[in-house]
Amino acid sequence: MKKGSSASQYAILGFLGFGPMSGYDIKQTVERSVRHFWNESYGQIYPLLKRMSAEGLAVAKTERNHGKPDRKVYSITPKGKKQLQDWLAHPAKAQPSRNELLLKIFFSGKENSANDLRQLERTRAEHAALLSEYLNIESDLRHRRAPHPQLPYWLMTLDFGKRRSQAIVDWCDQSIKTLRHLSSKSPNKKRRN
Amino acid sequence: MKKGSSASQYAILGFLGFGPMSGYDIKQTVERSVRHFWNESYGQIYPLLKRMSAEGLAVAKTERNHGKPDRKVYSITPKGKKQLQDWLAHPAKAQPSRNELLLKIFFSGKENSANDLRQLERTRAEHAALLSEYLNIESDLRHRRAPHPQLPYWLMTLDFGKRRSQAIVDWCDQSIKTLRHLSSKSPNKKRRN
DNA sequence: ATGAGCATGTAACTGGTTACATGATTTA
DNA sequence: TAAATCATGTAACCAGTTACATGCTCAT
Known about the structure:
The structure is a homodimer.
Chain A: H1 7-16, H2 23-33, H3 42-54, E1 58-63, E2 71-76, H4 78-89, H5 100-106, H6 113-144, H7 151-185
Antiparallel strand pairs in A: 1-2
Helix pairs in contact in A: 2-3, 6-7
The first copy, chain A, binds a DNA duplex through residues 4, 6-8, 22-24, 40-44, 46-47, 50, 65-72, 96.
């Protein structure tokens, strides 16, 4: 793995692999396709595209655009394709997970039960919503993209999202139950013996 | 939420809430207790402790230590306790997830099947190992820490880890099956029609 | 007229990791 | 005698976010 090339660079390379795109396009595509497990900001995309074309991994072509600003459309080069394949071939390195909600619960106590419950319910709702969103995307994908050779891979990542959200929903339900049980056994304010 | 105070600071405050600790102790404790959803480096801990004691959130006491280097043991102050409680009361902000493995699979195709399978099997093994580690920790905790008032909260975070790893194992199994099926339908090298 | 969408880009900042320096003691 | 553990700390680096600047067009 070459030094100075971050995962963002490979992500960009990957999207250019689908076809020529501008920085703006890449951002939109990220939002529509991999948002649930990846993100990129313009502040990352534009400087990287510049650097990558200087390194010969992509080539830019400026498209004049009536009224709207010009578009700089980048295409991946053979060298870029090779670098992408190299990256794909190397084992993915696990990124350190940091989960603030878990940290708060870890430090929590009976005093914070009301707040914990609120947070768990919010989290549950978020992931329940994601879950149904994923199901919609899935059926949409299966119909609109039926013959695309990469469809199975996209569905795999979706499946991951579904399972993760389902696991979180289940965990929230269980934890909410536990918290309620806990505070009914020894209530915060009024305690009847 | 005060500006300039990162989640790391609250994590440190949280651990000091369990009792006086040195920077070294905090690091060890993080490793032993919340490693599966949180991490801190010395390069983060020591400067923060310094700053926090300057801000009156903690107080340091130097312990002379025969032979070994001196220990600077920090205790949380009432002001620190208050700030910790404030943080606990605010909803946890979701940290942007970035999953390299999913990204690679998203960009993958039949050409990379062999490599994908290797990575999925590795990931599966990792999380299967974590899973049994969690189960050990759990029974250990239930016995050794049986009467601790915060035990239920620790178990909740463990439960999260268990469910997450189980979901990942399941997803790996499913994805491996899908990949094998895929390459048996249209093999990479030799194709019989 | 107001705001959303299109489109590119830079600068400042922040949060965090890694590498380094130091040095005694215990264990293999 | 080599390595691990104890223990603290700094400096350099890096990746990534946020805020800002610019400006046109189209729909409300």
